[in-house]
Design goal:
By secondary structure, the chain is α/β, with parallel strands linked by helices. The protein has a domain of 210 residues: Ribonuclease H-like superfamily/Ribonuclease H (Nucleotidyltransferase, domain 5). A hairpin with a 2-residue loop joins β7 and β8. It starts with a strand and ends in a 5-residue tail after the last strand.
Length: 316
């Protein structure tokens, strides 16, 4: 990217002198925790051609390893992000949109069947169809029924049991990821911490006032999804759960094409390997880098325009 920068003291009788200065594209990944900021981590990548270099990974504010450093509270986090140009891509591991019922402004609910919200209609139609197809295709589904005299073999699997997808807990993007692509963005479908989701939506509105646009320079991501697509479901399940996740994380980092630790990154690699939040912050930033570099797109229009979109590497 190029930008115009005025040279200090360069005024002549011909007017101001400007010069073209190359600027490096930056990517910030945030693993968002609660309001106290103690479980929030931030990673910064700097683009260089087809590669991204880790500039820093921080568990506390800019004065890292100093008595002046502060946890990533809203004040500390926004003070850091306010210094970034709107061309920076910020990728946050937290819901940046609310389910349909939480967004609804009606004082009286007409019920799911009569609701006109695009996301609610999608969950009742496409979402339920995706769920049905997913369950039918599950190779581990029971195909024999237990009776008092033993097991009774059946030639056709019993009707697939599906569950309702309530619009007050489910978002279309999570249902699409799970039932269409076989990826869970979190431990369970519809799982999200109310406190973290509320904080994420507050940050989205504040960052919007600073020029960061949702799904363009401000992205919702899921490190678990990114790892699942790039390294498989076992790695996605084990990079936090393993008895010794250090080796799992190290192998993931080694396999992240185009990612390098910069000469000024200090102890960032060690922080990423030993700390869950730092690792997720790095994966979040890397996801933002891949999205911009490879030109990922999302479905246009509703319901995802209002209901939100989780950016993850494409599989097709």
């Amino acid at each position: 990217m190029l930008r115009l920068e005025k040279l200090a003291g360069a005024t002549t009788r011909y007017g101001k002198i400007f010069t073209l200065v190359a600027t490096q594209k930056r990517y910030i990944g945030i693993d968002l925790g609660g309001a106290r900021g103690k479980t929030t981590a931030l990673a910064v990548l700097v683009e260089s051609g087809e590669e991204a270099f880790v500039e820093k990974v921080l568990m506390r504010g800019p004065e890292h390893n100093s008595a002046q450093s502060q946890p990533w509270t809203d004040t500390t986090l926004l003070a850091f992000l306010e210094q970034e140009a709107s061309s920076t891509t910020i990728a946050i591991n937290a819901p940046l949109s609310q389910p349909a019922c939480a967004r609804c402004s009606l004082s009286q609910c007409p019920g799911d069947a009569l609701c006109t919200d695009a996301a609610t209609r999608w969950l009742r139609s496409t979402g339920q169809e995706l769920q049905q197809q997913y369950v039918l295709a599950d190779p581990n589904r029971i195909v024999a029924l237990r009776q008092s005299s033993g097991f009774h073999q059946v030639t056709t699997a019993p009707a697939a049991a599906t569950q309702r997808l309530p619009p007050y807990t489910h978002r279309c993007t999570e249902v699409d990821l799970h039932y269409r692509r076989g990826i869970l963005p979190r431990e369970q479908l519809g799982q999200a911490s109310w406190a973290i989701a509320s904080r994420a939506n507050f940050l989205r509105r504040r960052l919007s006032s600073l020029g960061f646009s949702l799904n363009q320079s401000l992205l919702e991501v899921s490190p678990r999804c990114t790892i699942h697509v790039l390294f498989g479901s076992l790695a996605a399940q084990g990079y936090k759960r393993d008895a010794d996740p250090w080796h799992t994380r190290a192998s993931i980092i080694e396999g992240m094409a185009g990612l390098r630790f910069g000469p000024k990154s200090g102890m960032s690699r060690e922080d990423v390997l030993r700390n869950d939040n730092c690792f997720d912050a790095l994966i979040s930033a890397y996801t933002g880098f891949l999205k911009v570099r490879d030109g990922w797109t999302m479905p246009s229009g509703e319901p995802f325009e209002s209901d939100g979109w989780i950016w993850a590497p494409p599989t097709e």
